[in-house]
Write a structure and sequence with these properties.
Elements lengths: L1 E2 L7 H5 L13 E8 L12 H9 L2 H7 L6 E16 L7 E10 L9 E6 L5 E2 L3 H6 L11 E10 L5 E10 L4 E2 L10 H20 L2 E2 L8 E3 L11 E3 L6 E2 L19 H4 L17 H9 L8 H7 L4 H10 L1
Antiparallel strand pairs: 1-6, 2-3, 2-7, 3-4, 4-5, 5-8, 7-8, 9-11, 10-13, 11-12
InterPro entries: ABC1_dom, Kinase-like_dom_sf, Prot_kinase_dom
GO molecular function: ATP binding; protein kinase activity
Protein name: Protein kinase domain-containing protein
């Protein structure tokens, strides 16, 4: 789970002191150690009162030292990486993204190809790991989701005399185009419908395997090919930073959400309000289109599924079920 921090009440804004520059650049060598993260924590992403007060009175570097990443376990593997491109490296993002090449490694990492480093740098955001989702969806790595090469830790110098740990994961650099960078007007309606069906089918598949992505948006959909689709791999879902493993964040409510049971898109996708960011891609009657494409799943819907996953006041019902 991710908390992107606002600068409105930060130490740096209050005292007009700039944050340290991002320590990432092209041709930089990164020495990383294999690291097994702890289990995901079940907490919301809101800063508590004490944390807000601390954030106003202690500079970010000091807070990094006071609150190091959750420990996990270091293993014997190590690798030397070289940054070849800054994909997304700026303050305020929940993670920094770098394209890298493997220079040396004593673990099974691919050479001679770009990989994606996703760094969880606490100096620029508060973050909990999303590795659990990749582990849960191991069967779909390299197809519906990026291939996952492991979790690592990087030691970064603070002032030449001390250092801080930054956790990261190493992923396949998916070849393709992010949907948010495409112009919907360049596609015919039938092509856009084909893309949206791929999105629904991919998200439904990972939900059947008990991972709720929670951030399906064009920025998190990569098109590997274009309609008419005839490849084994057409789209890839990325960024599981706010995903829930086992469908909900709190274990005591998992049974209510029918783990392992397929839930029809007629329930989970027919609500147009679910489609944040896809507005410009859809110029047809969404409800009728979903019903036409997924009518064959209607027989699987039970009254209980309709109550929990159905489109009418779904959020209110889920909140009510949690209270119960």
């Amino acid at each position: 789970m991710t908390t992107i921090l606002s600068d409105s009440d930060s130490y740096n804004t209050r005292f007009n002191i700039p944050k340290p520059r991002l320590p990432y650049k092209v041709d930089q060598h990164l020495s990383v150690r294999a690291h097994v993260p702890p289990e995901p924590t079940n907490s919301d992403c809101c800063l508590k009162f004490e944390a807000r007060r601390e954030r106003e009175s202690i500079d970010p570097v000091g807070r990094c030292g006071k609150h190091p990443p959750l420990p996990g376990v270091f293993t014997s593997g190590a690798a030397e990486l070289k940054t070849v491109r800054l994909v997304r490296a700026a303050d305020g993002y929940s993670a920094q993204l770098l394209a890298v090449r493997v220079l040396s490694s004593d673990i099974n990492l691919p050479y001679n190809t770009d990989l994606l480093v996703k760094k969880y740098d606490p100096l620029h955001s508060d973050h909990e790991q999303d590795e659990a989702a990749y582990a849960k969806l191991a069967d779909f790595q390299g197809s519906l989701i990026p291939r996952y090469y492991g979790s690592f830790s990087l030691s970064l110098s603070i002032d030449g005399t001390s250092s801080r740990e930054v956790r990261l994961i190493l992923l396949e650099f998916v070849p393709g185009t992010c949907m948010v960078d495409l112009d919907p007007s360049k596609f015919t309606q039938s092509e856009r419908q084909a893309i949206m069906k791929e999105v629904i089918d991919a998200e439904t598949t990972i939900y059947i395997h008990d991972v709720a992505h929670n951030d399906i948006h064009p920025r998190n959909v990569i098109l590997v090919s274009f309609p008419p689709f005839d490849q084994a791999r057409n789209i890839v879902l990325v960024d599981f930073g706010v995903a829930w493993v086992n469908r909900v964040t709190f274990p005591k409510f998992q049974e209510q959400f029918l783990l392992g049971v397929p839930i029809s898109p007629l329930l989970r996708w027919i609500d147009i309000e679910r489609l944040s960011g896809f507005d410009n891609w859809i110029d047809w009657d969404w409800k009728l289109w979903v019903e036409h494409n997924y009518e064959h799943t209607r027989g699987s819907i039970t009254e209980y599924m309709q109550e929990v996953f159905g489109p009418r006041d779904r959020g209110a019902r889920q909140k009510a079920s949690v209270k119960d």
